[in-house]
NAD-dependent succinate-semialdehyde dehydrogenase
Amino acid sequence: METQNCIGGRWQAARDGREFDVRNPADDSLVARVADGGAADARLAADAAAQALPAWKARTARERCLVLKKWQALVERDVERLAALISREQGKPLAESRGEIAYSNAYIEWFAEEGVRAYGEVIPTPAASKRLMVVREAVGVVAVVTPWNFPAAMIARKIAPALAAGCTVVAKPAEDTPLTALALVKLAEEAGVPPGVLNIIPASRERTPEVVGEWLADGRVRKISFTGSTPVGKLLARESAATLKKLSLELGGNAAFIVFEDADIPAAVEGLMAAKFRNGGQTCVSPNRVYVHDSVHDRFVDKLAARVGALRVGPATWPQAEIGPMINARAVEKIERHVADAVARGAKVVVGGQRVRSDVANGPNYYAPTVLTGATREMALSGEETFGPVVPVFRFATEEEVVGEANDTPYGLAGYFFSNDVRRIWRVASALETGLVGINEGAIAAPAAPFGGVKESGYGREGSHWGLDEYLHTKYLCQGNLA
């Protein structure tokens, strides 16, 4: 288990020797003490990345592809060890952790192969004496800042395209879950990523601003890729303006899930289960508001309540666990606040609605999967992302009404709807103001597809060839005097 900074190919303690604790959310036990990086460490990492950039950028796309393929093979070799590490520091059930490693590796594989297809262009010439061409080049040093909910997938989805494009990287993983990211960087090093090409600085919540602030001020860092809250994303956008960095911001969400009267109700229930309860609801694309047509409301709620009530809550060490602990006490307190506010404003608890304490789930951070009916827009959970296993069900009567409600938010990451009317499908898909739309489907992410939002959910895309484009800039070449 790596617990130190990796700078220029050397694993080392923070310059001032500080460390912070990483704890298991299942029981609050200590997992490890990790180097607490500061501004001096961040500066050294940027120095190493800038020094390594010319040689890595000069390698052919095929050479970089082969290194990434070796990284992919090593991750596949160590899937059980990495999955166990995710479950210890993040809390999700082991089956989900294995799935996350497979998902992460799919991004490494995709970008290893997509990097060799960063094509340029030949432009028809306006004169016989000239040749006009466009080439794509690495943007330079990239700063990557990742969240805690998918500690492997977010690192892979950002670092793999950066390396494939020829960029070098400085990374700051989430303070709650740095160990998985450090382990992946160690495997990348074993795969042959040269010293200085990939550098990682873990930091506590208190020291994160000085680490990221150092990279924001450094003109050599030409791009920042961040997944996290909208307020932090806005801060990064403001602070990066001084050096006009390229930004990819995947920010907050408030996803609507709509069930129309012509939907396949059993399929809609299963789609919601897949979209909502992965990672215990701690997912940026997790449905936060569920709208069900009046005519099918009761039937849908009955089937949903039966499925949700059967979910088993426990730690990753319990083989039957389907919902693990929330990441920390703050997360549970927010869920409790949202449920209490909803009930005070007239919502009814159909299933769940409280913390879980049992012989198996005996830690402080477990919350029961919950279904609420009678949800209204006045409730806090209508406007704020709950980020937990709570399903508030809203009623609606018309398509126009529900589309308006779904779009009545500053966020626009994901949206979902279930309908068997082909004309409605195209109307609603066009009308939803989101970057991602699930149509009769709850699991929508894929390495070949672009992932990202609109409005205050950010800009830029991850995955697909658009995700590679985020790490490239366009250079125009004009050669004259050829005739």
